[in-house]
Amino acid sequence: MAKVRYINRLDQVKGLSEETRRALAPVVDRYKFRATDYYLSLIDWNDPDDPIRRIVIPQVAEMEPFGDLDASNEQGNYVAPGTQHKYSSTAVLLCNEVCGAFCRFCFRKRLFQDDNDEVVTDVSEGIKYIRRHKEITNVLLTGGDPLLLSTRRLENVIRSVREIDHVKIIRIGTKMPSFNPWRIIDDPELLTMLARYSTPTRRIYMMTHFNVIQELTRPAIEAMVLLKQAGVEAVNQTPLLGGVNDTPERLAKLMQRLSYIGVPPYYIFQCRPTEGNKQFAVPLVRAHRIFREAKRRVSGLAKRARMVMSHESGKVEIVGLTDSRIYMRYHRARHATDDERFLIYRRDDKAYWLDDLVPIGPHPHPSYAADRRHYGQLE
Ligand code: SF4
Questions:
Q1: The domain containing residue 27 runs over which residues?
Q2: pTM: predicted TM-score of the whole model, two decimal places
Q3: Domains in the chain: how many in total?
Q4: Is 186 within 8 Å of 1 (Cβ atoms)?
């Protein structure tokens, strides 16, 4: 059994000089650091731009003012403790507040701060809510990383959800195959438990979070094989991250390799303008170009991925660009009336997010505009 060690202090990171550690001290005071020795071993310390290093090692640039701590206003989605309900068919249970490591670009880094109470260990109120809401057909377990829970505790959550007839799909958002694949490889009870609840007509999906091909190691692939043998489906989602996967070559390699191993890319996300994330931000227009160029290089299964922006009003997909306009469409909308709504904005190559853009014509998403007025955020 491979024993993976969790590393919570920079002085345990051998590749960093004393001077760098000192410079990073205020950064880790603000945004916690956590890694595994396995994940750190994937870093090429001779390359200052190594993508794994960028994902997990703090940077002074995180202190630069940028974005919001809760960029998509997730706080507005809570319906019960630890339970969000934004899209009618989907409920989200935040059942753990720790991850195998902390990604420096995380859009939920607020959850890891000591005074945050959005995550609960007891999701019973959320379960009651889901039971009452028959429109909910799928439940996403997230956090934090649910695979950091003990198998027994994870089973308790999965069993409670499985007992609700109208919930057909259970999704588990996890980056453990990247940070510590042995969490899966070395726990046959976990695999047996998942096999019990992932049935032919009501599957469990792992929503993996591979960002670069360096993470697709032999153990990571072995973990995915075991999950599949347990009857678990898997798809991948990743943000497009400056300095990590923001070239057509890197993104295409990731998408292609994921399709080869049976974990096809599902969503490529526009990186949310979250505090501390300036160095990962890629403007929308450039991100869209990278994505389209990457798609040209991959085969059909990898091409199915969509690039979306998880805005507080819904998942918005860029569908086209001209010299003067950006065309978008709601892929999923908070309000049913916005579903599939087409949006037209003035093109702005510096914009990072929907809110940075100027709409053409009347406000193209009136339900969202009404919400914002309601919260006093628009005139
Ligand atoms: S694994 Fe996901 S939730 Fe955890 S730190 Fe990374 S991005 Fe955030």
A1: 6-63
A2: 0.94
A3: 1
A4: yes
